[in-house]
Known about the structure:
The chain is of the alpha/beta class. The chain contains seven helices and six strands, in the order βββαααβαβαβαα. The chain has helices at residues 53-59, 64-71, 75-82, 91-102, 116-126, 141-148, 164-182, and strands spanning 12-19, 28-36, 43-51, 88-89, 108-111, 138-140. The longest helix is centred in the C-terminal third of the chain and has 19 residues, at 164-182. The relative contact order is 0.21.
Amino acid sequence: MGWRMNTKIYPDLMIDLETLGNNGQSAIVQIGACYFDINTGEIGKEFLMNIEVDEASKYGEINASTVMWWLQQSKEAQMSVFGPQIYRVDLRSVLEMFTRVMTEGVENVWCHVDFDLPILKHAYQAVGLEYPFKYWMGQHLRTITKLASVSTKDYVNEGIAHNALDDCKFQVKYVVDCFKKLGVK
Length: 185
């Protein structure tokens, strides 16, 4: 797991987190991100890293309902986050790598801003690092789909659902379509 180097950087960045909780202080077990062209959907530089569960629990909360939810997900999703073949890193190192390779030139951070960004910000604060994004950069997936009257159920996730990078690429598809539908450039 990691990132592709020497790929394009766009002003739009998609982020997705896989966690063991559902509040702003949740333990992060996987971070995925990709730069993308808002007009074409072309994917640029990518990032995917897993965090040690023991390490994640030092800096974030785990709740039983989310653990039970993970047990109901596909084997592929479980293996992509928790499988024995997965390389896991401590949270601080993952966030340092993320900042180093995935924040250059970012103007818009696309995600579920009421979920992903508070958790990510908490993680940065918990390990003593500066949060790399400004509050105005957050762009909400639910808002854009509502404005464009686009249903995410009309799209197929060609990767593994609940693998953070595959979820990012899935989300890029419908955000780009929303912009096209709204006639925004």
